[in-house]
UniProtKB/TrEMBL annotation:
Keywords: DNA-binding, Transcription, Transcription regulation. Residues 30-49 bind DNA. It comes from the Bacteria. Residues 7-67 form the HTH tetR-type domain. SUPFAM superfamilies: Homeodomain-like. This is TetR family transcriptional regulator.
Length: 189
């Protein structure tokens, strides 16, 4: 119960921050303004997010994907395991949340400071998601080939996301774009 309340607070802070970033611009928005909008103190903001960048970058989807990788049927090949995990993570996006996810993605691609922080976060995600894949394959958690494979899948996913960010289409289309991008890993161009 306590953990759910903390997560609810975390995502409420994020929603207020994204709304302010869209209205005022990322650089013009302060942590104090975000805290005021979320009805918390700035010190509470920093208990949930280490930096202003993190309020845009952090999400819950890595955990969803890692869980899906762990519970996928044992007979699925690695690409299908990762494809399902990525697509299921998009299924967990609440319809009311779609616009905020799209706005966060736009901010990450458009704001230089966020773009750089996104690259760091992406490396963390790759290492995090490679662990359950390595477990499935009986390899060490830091297996280079698992990390490279997850990196290729994340790169394919980003290709689909970039089209979505440009076109602002619905969630079904982004899932189709990501699925198509992932198929290139198996089939080639």
């Amino acid at each position: 119960m306590r953990e759910r309340k903390k997560q609810k607070t975390r995502w409420a802070i994020q929603a207020h921050a994204v709304r302010l970033f869209v209205q005022q611009g990322y650089d013009a928005t302060t942590v104090e303004q975000i805290a005021e909008a979320a009805e918390i103190s700035p010190s509470t903001f920093f208990r949930y997010f280490k930096t202003k960048e993190d309020v845009v970058i952090q999400d819950r989807y890595d955990e969803v994907m890692a869980d899906e990788i762990r519970k996928a049927p044992a007979d699925l090949p690695p690409l299908e395991v990762v494809r399902r995990a990525i697509l299921v993570s998009f299924e967990t996006i609440d319809p009311q949340e779609v616009e905020q996810v799209l706005q966060r993605a736009r901010l990450q691609f458009q704001v230089p400071a966020l773009r750089m922080r996104s690259l760091d976060s992406m490396q963390d995600s790759i290492r995090y998601l490679a662990v359950p894949l390595a477990e499935r394959l009986g390899r060490p958690p830091d297996d280079f080939r698992c990390q490279a494979f997850i990196g290729a899948c994340v790169g394919a996913m980003i290709n689909g996301l970039m089209v979505w960010v440009r076109e602002g289409s619905d969630l079904l289309q982004v899932r189709e774009l990501i699925d198509e991008s992932l198929s290139v890993i198996a089939d080639g161009p």
